[in-house]
Amino acid sequence: MDKIDDILRKFPKRKVSLLPTPFHRLDSISDIVGCSIYIKRDDLTGFALSGNKTRKFDFLIADALLKGCDTIIGIGANQSNFCRILSGVGAKYGLSVHLILNGKKPDKPTGNLLLDHMLGATIHHIDTTDPDVRMEEAERVRDQLQSRGKNVYFLPPGGSIPVGALGYVAAFGELMDDFKKHNLKIDKIIHASSSAGTQAGLVVGQSIANWHGKVVGMSVDVPKTLLEENAYELAVETAKLLTVDVRKDLIITDDSYIGEGYGKRTPECEEAVSLFARKEGIFLDYVYTGKAAAGLLDYCHSGKISPDENVVFIHTGGNIELFE
Q1: Domain assignment of residue 129, given as a range
Q2: What letters, b where the CB count within 10 A reaches 16 and e where it falls short, cover 221-244?
Q3: Which residues of the chain register pLDDT less than 70?
Q4: Domain check: are 99 and 130 in the same one?
Q5: For residue 8, what are the contacts with CB-CB under 8 A and spacing of at least 6?
Q6: No. of helices (H) and no. of strands (E), the chain
Q7: Is the pTM above the cut of 0.85?
Q8: Which of 34, 84, 224, 291 is the most exposed place for a label (fewest CB within 10 A)?
Q9: What stretches of 161-232 adopt beta strand conformation (E)?
Q10: Residues 17, 36, 50, 80: which is the catalytic one?
Q11: How many domains, the chain?
Q12: Which pLDDT score is estimated for 164?
């Protein structure tokens, strides 16, 4: 969308992602649930096995290079998709990568952790999921690196800072182009939400485009009230970068599909993953997209999405989780 592109033009950007990603209708699932569902394939962004985080790094790595950084620190779980993409970006652009990963160090790395090693990242394991302890370790590593003369770019979980959220402001413009190309009136956009960067970027893009549908973030781990606070705070900071406004009522989340917590499968999630695979040939994961798809399907079955509505599901990637 030209208006969004014009606003973003002043920000440095590198082409980490292969864009635009595919957009198409899920014909079989739409027939099954009685709603018209389209999918935005951000599982096909084309870098380091893809996912939504590559869009964030289009802007984050440009910012890091502009600031003369030679090292990046990232924070996440052992199987963090964000840290996988970060490791790939560091390898491509010649920056050292240090990852602070919570959870017990496995005897043998698998999934994303295996790929982090292959991409040359330095891994710092901490045997806890306490976010405060994790941040303390990240700050200790940062201070140690800076004392050795390193110029460090420090990123929180998910790369969810305003510069990173610009990736999904841009993605919203791409979605508007998709809608126009297919001559569609879309009523809702549904996606998995956790660290809030994707959601914050989308609603800022929505504000710029003056789009009147709803963006719904299906929480995979964070209670609704806290996720909405986090998403709105990040959206406001992102909007300030762009000198635009964003309304709080645009932040819509649903925490009904979390189950017992982050990474814990639910029967509805398993059913959604199976349905997408067997009816569309599309793989979801059990941590993020499976839970978001469970919410999407339940919305169709319960009438929260009516048969005359058009809905977009953003596939944010994460399929590596299937190989853990």
Answers
A1: 56-159
A2: bbeeeebbbbbbebbebbbebbee
A3: none
A4: yes
A5: 166, 169, 170, 173, 242
A6: 11, 10
A7: yes
A8: 34
A9: 188-193, 214-219
A10: 80
A11: 2
A12: 98
